[in-house]
Specification:
The chain is α+β, with helices and mostly antiparallel strands. Helix content is 42%, strand content 28%.
């Protein structure tokens, strides 16, 4: 599912126009990005997004085998909720069918 498909599904499920659904999705994504950018975690019914610092480490160039230094960097981590994991194991049906 790409963004356009997701917007179409939101519009259909919530009886919104596609323009309004896209604005809502953009707002959600913007707020998640801003919250993570300030160091806050974001808890949603499907799970929690949080920001983590990946430590610097040694790596290898796969073409030459040369050892390289990989610097530390910020990354986003997602931990799925228990209910979301259970739903994925059961194979939930799509709401529009």
């Amino acid at each position: 599912m790409n963004k356009s498909d997701f917007v179409d599904a939101i519009a259909l499920d919530a009886a919104l126009s596609k323009v309004t659904a896209e604005k809502a999705l953009d707002s959600i994504m913007s707020n998640i990005t801003v919250s993570l950018g300030t160091g806050e975690s974001v808890q949603l019914p499907i799970g929690t997004f949080s920001r983590v610092l990946r430590a610097a480490r040694k790596g290898r160039n796969p073409q030459t085998g040369e050892e390289i230094d990989i610097p530390e960097k910020l990354a986003v981590k997602f931990k799925a909720s228990k209910k979301f994991k259970e739903d994925m194991q059961e194979g939930i049906e799509t709401p529009n069918e």
